[in-house]
């Protein structure tokens, strides 16, 4: 039986000068980071969770947490220059269930700038791809976090090593992430997000990742924050990998299993519910049907949710992020090969 867990990006980061909080995901809002909500068996669902200082979205359990998290002594890394194009994902990367090609970007051919390597629990790296800025966060937020070493070049990053375990309430140990927009830390890269949904013609994104032999308890997921440009109001998540023992927030929606999304390859199982008191909609690949590369328009998922009556509040796309929620180590050389966001 799979367990639910309240997952993700509770990022209690001390950045440059201030600890930034949560539910708003905003550099305008101070406060403290939050701890997780509760885990539970797969027959229960999440409800509320966390205080205003938490910024988690992914997965939920029967009850929720809510105490603030302590600050850390993380630093911000600006990077040490540019690298060449990132190559393929290695022997394990595969092609997954595909994705349409974006001729204007081309996964695997981006000009990467900003590199670093850190074993700090909370570290940020300021990076870019083809001149567009992004932020990398190492993000070892869970109470069961042990240690990790993460390296990066542009929007490509590698979890070289990671140890840890799920928290007592099912929390992931970490969620190393790279993002565009207003997310869970002070830095807000000038990448075109946040942006009003009505003004967006297209919001193309692509991601390629490689498991490199890691078969354990982690997902590979998009995390899309909806809101008013400053305040976080709801979450959309796209899981390209469903791990053996953990599930997204909410419950599987019986009316929306094995569905397709217009202009997006593959089929999806939809889970929806509440986490941290905010609505969340998850599109999830079936377990064992990992997708290692995809390109799509984020607005197609926004429209899909609306069409199904599952839309979340918020008239702006605040941020688009990708990363790995890791419940249990060890993890070795799990790699995000390439990621981009193209706002039009």
Question: How does this structure look, described?
Answer:
Strands 5, 6, 8, 9, 12, 13, 15, 16, 18, 19, 20, 21 and 23 form a 13-stranded mixed β-sheet that branches. Strands 7-10-11-24-14-22 form a 6-stranded antiparallel β-sheet. It contains 1 helix and 24 strands. It is mainly beta and 344 residues long. The termini are far apart.
Number of strands: 24
What about the largest sheet? 13 strands, mixed
Classification by helices and strands:
mainly beta
Identify the overall geometry. globular
N- to C-terminal separation?
Answer: 43 Å
Approximately how much helix is present in the residues? under 10%
Question: Unreliable runs, pLDDT <50, ≥5 residues?
Answer: 4-74, 79-104
What is the radius of gyration computed over CA atoms, rounded to a whole number of angstroms? 18 Å
Mean pLDDT: 78
Strand content: 35-45%
Pattern of helices and strands: EEEEEEEEEEEEEEEEEEEEEEHEE
Number of helices: 1
